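Q: My labmate handed me this sequence with no annotations at all. I'd like to see what the chain might look like in three dimensions before we decide whether it's worth expressing. Could you predict it?
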Amino acid sequence: MSIAGRFRNSLSAVLIAGLAGPVLLAVTQPARVMAQSVPSTVSGIVKDPGGNPLGKGEVKFTTNASVPVKERKYQYTFPVGADGTYHATGIAAGEYTVFYFRPENPDKSADYQTLKVKGGEDLKLDFDMSRPEYLKSLSPEDRAALEAAIKKNAAVVAENAKVANINNTLKQAHEDEKNGKGDQAVAELTPLTVAKPDEPIIWGALGDAQLAVADAAYNAARAAKTSVADPAIQQKYADAAASYQKAIDLDTKATKPNTANEFVYYLNLGQSLSREGKPDDAGAAYESAAKANPAAAGKAYYNEAAVYLNANKNAEAATAADKSIAADPKFAESYFIKASALVPNTTSVTDPKTNTTKFVLPPGCLEAYQAYLELDPNGKHSADVKALLTSLQQPEKNGFKAGKK
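A: Here is what I predict for the chain of 405 residues:
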């Protein structure tokens, strides 16, 4: 019999049997499949009572917070990142108490909150310790300490903002000064001296801006062939000098004086005073610069010598040049200034028999000229020095060897 024939016979048998009376058929139900909980994620940020992110510590999840800390089991533990955030993954459904622990106090939580996780959620849970619920949970003593800390932190934040503003202003003023906008730089810096009058850097920066303004007026007067001794120009240099002196006074009284800055302040003070027509005061400033930074004393003494030479104070110029040479024997310009300060004392002797005149340079003058040529044979003064020595019938070379600095 074919398969189709057997199927028809079986179906007929069932139908016939059905006529004999009702037959109860047991229907087997498919096995019940329990729904699987999809894990959730929980993320957030940890902030201190001042609202600042706490970039350290751990966030821990437990289903039994009533157990003492040392006996408590935590189902999940996640680190807090440097930016104060944490990201918890794979959290099963349940009711949790979530704790935040500081690394310096692992036995006592800094904060906690309850959280119900249903499954398949992306939850957010911040530990913001400035929230009212947290503050209310503190003891009176802890709350008082916290309020004091918040107040102190607010003052620090305000001070940091103030410093940031000062730094930005200093940077902008420097750019303006560099771009020939000295007056604008002065206008930007002057209010800072009122807001923070005890900061030497601000006064030094103001001095730089004022000196730039004074130099611009000085150069304009020279170009126009008017007097550089104009009272208005002199006052500009006086203003710069006063600012540099203020910077120096503040820095020398500071807990940690910055001698490198003082050196610069003294140099610029000397320049301001020299342009103001006060060579002796300028010389004193350069002497102080040399003391502030002995390693750079040669530069300070050279500036002093140049100021005295320009003021026709030749003896003082020669003395300062000697100090510069002693501090830096390889700096050619100091030898030139020394020789220039001494050469006016040249004398002459005429031989009555031959009627020839011989020039006698003062002691140290020829040697200084020769040293200059040895150190800088192609320098800006070399041609003039060679011409002078030739006219005075003096040798250009003597085998000079500069000492070590």
